[in-house]
């Protein structure tokens, strides 16, 4: 389902239950609530929420999905959202071009299937030892962050 640039302020209620990919980029969504996704879309593997104005994502909001790819780039997030409900399925996460200043070990360590992580163009000055606790990670994008030297962690 492609709802690109529709001036939406929230995730629509009338999306078909059997949707597998949901594209909502370039809208005016500011918040993702549990009721937007929880137990509604059992076949959902991809969600694109790029270029909105999202500042918060409620914990547990993707319960009941099999989400593999989540694009949250170009929003106003200050931290990586709680994605515990999709820790066994999520392989790609893009949170580039947000306002994230720190990433704690516990914010990522449970995402054991993650192969691609884009955290470029944020405000990160330090990183936890990502390679140590994310062995499945193949691609890590860090450009345009004001990182202090952390070469041993990458």
From TrEMBL:
Entry's Gene Ontology cellular component terms: extracellular matrix; extracellular space
Annotated protein name in UniProt: LRRCT domain-containing protein
Source organism, top-level taxon: Eukaryota
Keyword line: Signal
InterPro entries associated with the record: Dev_Immune_Receptor, Leu-rich_rpt, LRR_dom_sf
Gene3D superfamilies: Ribonuclease Inhibitor (3.80.10.10)
Keyword Signal listed: yes
Record carries keyword Signal: yes
């Amino acid at each position: 389902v492609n709802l690109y640039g529709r001036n939406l302020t929230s995730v629509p209620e009338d999306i078909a239950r059997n949707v597998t990919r949901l594209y909502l980029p370039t809208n005016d969504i500011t918040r993702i609530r549990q009721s937007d996704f929880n137990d509604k879309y059992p076949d959902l593997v991809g969600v694109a929420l790029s270029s909105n104005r999202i500042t918060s994502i409620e914990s547990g909001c993707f319960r009941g999905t099999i989400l593999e790819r989540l694009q949250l780039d170009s929003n106003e997030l200050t931290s990586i959202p709680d994605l515990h409900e999709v820790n066994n399925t999520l392989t790609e996460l893009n949170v580039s071009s947000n306002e994230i200043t720190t990433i704690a070990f516990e914010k990522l360590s449970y995402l054991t299937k993650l192969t691609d992580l884009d955290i470029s163009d944020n405000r990160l000055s330090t990183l936890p030892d990502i390679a140590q606790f994310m062995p499945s990670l193949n691609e890590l994008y860090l450009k345009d962050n004001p990182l202090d030297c952390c070469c041993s962690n990458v």
